[in-house]
Each structure stands twice: as C-alpha cells, then as structure tokens.
Amino acid sequence: MFFSSLSVQFTSHRFSIAWSRVLPTGGTDNINQEGVKFYRDYIDKVISNGMEPMVTMLHMDHPVALEIATGGWDYPAMVEKFVVYAEFLFKTFGDKVKYWNTVNEPNMFCSYWPGLAPRENGFHRCVHNIIVAHMQAYQLYKQKYAPTQNGKVGASVLMSPGMPKTTQAEDVMAAEVFNQVYCGTVLHPLVYGDYPPVLRYLTDKLQKEKNVSEAILPTFTDEQKAILAGGATDFVALNLYSEFKAGYSNNPTNPNMPVLFKDMMEEIPFVEISGTGGFSKVDDALMKNGLLWIWRSYHIPIIIAENGLGDTKHAGVNDTERAAYHSANLRSLVRTIKEYGVEVLAYYAWALLDVYEFSAGYSGRPFGLIHVDYKTGSLNRTLKNSAQFFIELRDTGRVPNILPPDEGPSTSASSTLSSGLLLLAVGAMRGLWL
C-alpha cells in the first residue's frame, strides 16, 4: 500500500522464486527454461497491475539434489551454491525486480532444517553459512548489478519480541538478552560486523560447561568482519506475528516454550518466557515493540515482510478476528512511524491466499485473506470478511478501527485514523505495501 494525498494504493506484491523450479539441480548448468518463463510472465503480470515485485530468493526450499550433494546449510558448500543462484536471479530478473530478500527468516529456518546430515550445534553453523551467503550475494549485487539495476537487497529475520514481565532490572536484562540472541544472531553481524558480544560470551561459556572442543558459535574471518561492518543489508525484512513476556529466573521451567526457541534456550538458561501469543492473538503493542527494538538496535530501514493471524479457531470466511489483528497492527505501525521516526519502507500481510504452512499443513492455521477450498479439492477461492478491511482501507485512505469479537462492536469510520494522519508518515516511509 502506498500513501498519497488522495488515496491508499496497493502497490507491491511479495513472492518467492523456487530455486528448484529454475535450477532443478542447483546450478546454472541445468536451467529449466519453462520455470524461467513462468517467473518472467509472473513478474510482468505483477508490474502490469501497477505493483512492484519483491522477491524472496529462498523460502525454505532448495533442490534436493543440492541438499544431497552438500549436506545442506549446516555445511559451507551451500554458500557458493547460493551465490551462484543469486547471481542467476539478478542477471535473469533484475531488470524488473528492484527489491530482493535473500533467505527467509534463517533464525527460524535453521531451527527446523539444518540439513540432511545435521551435526551438533547445527543451528549456529546453518545461520553462519546463511549470513556469509547473504553477505557475498549482497556484495556481488552492489558491485556488479546495482549500478544499472538500482535495486535493494535485504536480510530477513523472524522476531517475537521478548518484553520484560516487570520493570525490575533483571527482567529487563533477560528480555534484552533474548532479543539479542534470537534476532541479533542474524542482524548484528550484517550491521556491526560480528555476532552480539553477549551471544559470544554465552556460547563460549556453554562450550566450557559442556567440555567440547569445537566452538558452538562459528567465527567470521577478519576479511568477512570488515565487509560486514561496512554494511551488508539495505533493509531488514521483519516477520512479526506475536510477542511474549520474558523474565529472569534461577530455575526457569518454560513449560510452554515454542519449538522455534528450542535451539537457543540452552544458551540463556536464566530466561523464563510466558504469555506467548502463537499466531492468533490480537495485540496492539506488538508492532510498536518490534519496530522500536529493531530500529534502535540497528537504525536501518525496515520492511514488514510478514504480519498476519493464523486461524487456529477455524473461523473460515467469518474471520473478524483477522481484520482486528491487521487493524491493531497497522494503526500501531502508523503511530510508531509518526512518533518515533522509524523508517518503514513496506508492509506485507501474510497471506493473500490460504497456503500450506510448514508445521500446520493446509488446515491447521490458515492465514489467507482469501479462503481456498482444499477440503473438497475444488480449490475455489472466496474472499473472507477480513478482505473487506483492506478494501475499505484502499477506498477511504483510513485504517478502520476493528475490535476483536470479544471486545464489543467495532467503531465507526469517524473514529478511524484519517488519511491526514497517515500522510504525516510519508516522509519516513516511501510506501506501505501489500
């Protein structure tokens, strides 16, 4: 969505290119021309509809032949393979694609798929190799393609903001350490040239306690540190769904710890988390807390690459709660930009259609604004009620104030944020896109 003096316009479309669809065995020695044509046509269609394409290069899938050959992201051999793939994309589609996101949320991806032959501490090796691959692809683009293509390359991270459960210093510290370990693992090197010092301290301490010879956290070379410290990303592609409370404890139990955090909790044994929102909690503090932590920590432009509600209650097309979720987050986004000067380039709702979710299939927690009939196999598509929220936003230039069903009726348009208020954010954001 883009804000102008007259209206709100939907001006961008985010999608991923499947590595295996264009390079079935991973390299440019075997190009699937039909796959290339599919994406050329797709990109042309996006542009012809007045939208800017934003492409994610790797969203949890790469050729199985490559996985077998290298062992996956747990191994450095994947770095070179990815850079070859990235250059193929720049060369093939870069004349029309100006926004590139390299690997989707590696801090989540590496928790699930370190490779077919994972080793102990594979999480950190996987993230490390992705950071190096991103750095090399970024450097390649800036040196070879940016002068003529004038695009941007960004890095992705999943964030579930850990907020202090009290104002006590130890709880504030616990929340900050959690965020540094979970998000900073990916982002800190791309801005400052190395991992967060607290992460290095904690992993070295754990290594001594476990009495293992190999470092838990890999080390960048001096050359890599110098390149990274010079800046290795044009924006943060932030995936933001829910937050929780974090506190200090001498004996944390964490009975409801999300599986997403399993690889890091051994490194921060003093952090106890509670109140996790999952994918279905309407929280008007989420967007502000996530944006401010990223902005204050790294001060580089942000794209909200994913933000959405998973329908765990199976409301189907009658998804008022999803409309309330987007209403709360968009109103919070506008206020945060206006009050704190955060530079937000774009906003993408996850997702346009009900799609396959990696840990929930087609029916566990659908995110789409459009219902897809997977149950009968017809694949018929039906606009959900939440789609009307975005239609009204487009037509009126206002963010409708939709309350969750259990909080009473939604307010009228007269109490929504007007386009005049939204326009105050234009100086800080070039576009708010779906």
TrEMBL record:
GO biological process, one term: carbohydrate metabolic process
Pfam families in UniProt: Glyco_hydro_1 (PF00232)
Keyword Lipid metabolism: no
Sorted UniProt keywords: Glycosidase, Hydrolase
Annotated GO MF terms: hydrolase activity, hydrolyzing O-glycosyl compounds
Keyword Repressor appears in the UniProt entry: no
Coiled-coil boundaries: none
SUPFAM superfamilies in the record: (Trans)glycosidases (SSF51445)
Family to which this protein belongs: Belongs to the glycosyl hydrolase 1 family.
Official protein name in the record: Myrosinase 1-like
Gene name per UniProt: LOC117652032
